[in-house]
Fold this sequence. Notes:
Layout (H helix, E strand, L loop, with lengths): L4 E6 L6 H14 L3 E6 L7 H5 L6 H24 L5 E9 L1 H8 L1 E2 L2 E2 L11 E6 L4 E5 L6 H4 L3 E9 L4 E5 L1 H14 L1
Parallel strand pairs: 1-2, 7-9
Antiparallel strand pairs: 3-6, 3-8, 4-5, 6-7, 8-9
Helix pairs in contact: 1-3
Amino acid sequence: DVSIAGDLIVGFPGETEEDVEATRGLIQRVGFKNNFIFKYSPRPGTVAASRYEDDIPDPIKRRRLNSLLASQAEVSRMVHASWVGKRVSVFVEKISEQSRKQQTGFEGSNTKVSLGWEKPPIQLSGRTSGDLIAVFDLPTGHDPKDLIGHIVEVDIEASSPLLLKGRCDQRTSQEKVKGIRAML
């Protein structure tokens, strides 16, 4: 159940198409949950900036970057999909960005009108022990403060390349809340 993430630089001086393909092979073999992939740019004061000529043209760097980002997105999609149908422990960090936008009635550049009697479910966001982001709706009868900062069990029902989507185990969360309230 290990999750691996990485940081990759594409377009480093002297990089060849074979190097890029070897990197793509590594991404696929390792099964990184995600990679932060950047194109090389000289940084003053670094050894690379003083020792190597920036010999990869920017359009080639961009093409290679987009190609590796697409490969990583597909690997991330598969890694996250492998968790569907499993129960995971999630450390609850916050109300999700999606819920924040719904609550404020603002999403991007479009103002949303909400009717007072329509209460969208509050979605919480947290991380698994392998640092995968998971979102789930707040169980009925709970306050977000009851669960934020605590670990709950979540049944994963769907996924995307960037996150897991699930349902909080109602029984487990009720026991957790009772325990939290008893400590207060």
